Amino acid sequence: MAPRWLEKVAASRAGGFWFLKVANRIDKRLVPATNGRLSTAPGRQIVVIEVIGAKSGQPRRIPLQYVSDGPDIVLIASKAGSPKHPAWYHNLRKNPEATVWAKGRSGRYRASVVEGAEYDRLWQKARDYYSGYDVYKERAGSRRIPLVLLTPQAPAASGPARSTPPAR
Description:
By secondary structure, the protein is α+β, with helices and mostly antiparallel strands. The protein has one domain (about 5-150): Pnp Oxidase, Chain A (Roll). It contains five helices and six strands, in the order ααβββαββααβ. The protein has a six-stranded antiparallel beta barrel with strand order 1-2-3-6-5-4. Helix 1 packs across helix 2. It is globular, with a radius of gyration of 18 Å.
């Protein structure tokens, strides 16, 4: 866990700029290359997700801070408190399958938007992990910051074994 003074810097407008505009460009390559062992945010849980763009249909890689909830990954669509949802949120809503790179958690996941009592529980968990989410919530104004739950998917089954070769 990062010290509180570092969280205050990260939650500032300059910190938001650094993470959204500079660190993301580095982490989208660094995190997958090291399978989550290195990132530009030491002491933080960083994941890179690859999703299919809602409009473009092209793969997009996005580094994000996350919170663990058992085997699941919780993503916070704060965009540093922007009044608009981040593009990755729209992408996951349209195409919920994602590839994830994170230390000890890399693989295929399926996304779902969190609602109700589960939202309240996971929002508190996110706030406990990073106090800057309170600042982002204020900045976001009337926008409710969405939470997205990534659930690991079992590897695809190879199908039943064949005792005879297929007919030609």
